[in-house]
Design goal:
Number of domains: 2
Oligomer: single chain
Number of helices: 11
Distance between the termini: 69 Å
Strand content: 5-15%
Order of helices and strands: HHHHHHEEHEHEEHEHEH
Helix content: 55-70%
Structural class: mainly alpha
Largest sheet: 3 strands, antiparallel
Length: 333
């Protein structure tokens, strides 16, 4: 049976192969005589590549998300077992689990198909609007004229033209989502890895809820980014009204995040440790590094003074800065 990582690699390879095929079609189309039937052939090929990709994608997200969800399910069961919870026979066919897997799979498929459609539309637009030429006549004459003025050789001018064409073609193969441009392989990896981690999280959370567990602890990594440093190691509550901070939504603070949440069984913990963790979890500070985080979790002091993060104060400062900009724009001192 394929692992989650193997399925991820297969999915990303599908995207890469399609992007390379479209890129080749564009380069061929944009460097041949402007004949109508050739143009239509290139457009047909681009549509065919994307249709093949979409057909291949049809079942892949469900398989991938299902495997990732099971990982989270197993992660939760191991954590619960270590904290003395007696486990029932595993059951992933219940409505909560199958529903969560389906929602995540549908979302991932929609994102990936949307990216494929963007690749297709940009490729078609580039072929059509340039009528087999990646550069307009004005741009070509500017490049040639500059070469003549600067005394370039014909080979140097040709290279400059080739580079300009290549830039246009590369732009045509990009994926555009909400105005941002992505390389297809990066986009596929971003979507699939982020959604896979979401599936792991949902599997862990829903399995804990099966046992009426409402507290979850975020893992702590020594190489965590600045954003995660303020979140990791803390315990969060599903409700947020029981003395613990509410579980973040989304649970992962950024794409490609490698953190996980595991059930936290209050009754299985030492009371002093619970008190320390509760204070840490409700503390609005950045703990600067892993060693300091461990010291704070063990009841010690961070060597570096934590940076206070007061969301209300930050909002007030932003509002004040905005008011100052507005006044400046109106000419009011």
């Amino acid at each position: 049976m394929a692992t989650v990582e193997q399925r991820l690699r297969e999915l990303i390879k599908l995207y890469k192969d399609t992007a390379r095929a479209i890129d080749l079609e564009l380069k061929t189309a944009l460097r041949t005589p402007a004949e109508r039937f050739r143009q239509e052939e290139h457009l047909r090929q681009i549509r065919a590549y994307v249709a093949t990709l979409e057909a291949e994608l049809k079942n892949r997200p469900t398989d991938l998300i299902g495997d990732a969800y099971k990982q989270g399910h197993d992660l939760s069961r191991i954590a619960l077992e270590r904290q003395g919870i007696t486990l029932r026979a595993a059951n992933l066919t219940g409505g909560m689990h199958t529903g969560a897997i389906q929602v995540l799979s549908d979302s991932m498929l929609a994102d990936l198909v949307g990216g494929a459609e963007s690749m297709k539309q940009r490729g078609i637009r580039l072929v059509r609007q340039t009528q087999q030429r990646a550069l307009q006549e004005r741009q070509i004459m500017q490049i040639i004229g500059r070469g003549v003025i600067e005394g370039e050789t014909p080979q140097q001018v040709e290279k400059r033209l080739r580079d300009a064409i290549r830039k246009e073609v590369d732009e045509g193969a990009k994926i555009v989502i909400k105005g941002r441009k992505y390389d297809p392989d990066y986009y596929a990896e971003l979507v699939s890895r982020t959604m896979t981690r979401d599936a792991v999280m949902k599997g862990a959370l829903n399995t804990g809820l099966d046992y009426d567990i409402t507290l979850y602890q975020m893992s702590a990594h020594s190489n965590a980014c600045t954003l995660c440093q303020s979140l990791q190691g803390k315990v969060y509550s599903v409700s947020g009204n029981d003395g613990w901070p509410k579980l973040p939504d989304p649970m992962l603070p950024h794409p490609n995040c490698e953190h996980v949440y595991v059930p936290f069984v209050l009754e299985a913990q030492d009371p002093d440790e619970v008190e320390r963790l509760q204070a840490l979890s409700n503390q609005k500070t950045f703990i600067h590094n892993h060693a300091d985080l461990q010291r704070v979790m063990e009841g010690g002091q961070a060597r570096k003074k934590p940076q206070i993060v007061d969301e209300d104060t930050k909002a007030e400062k932003r509002a004040k800065r905005k008011a100052q900009r507005d006044q400046a724009a109106k000419g009011v001192v």
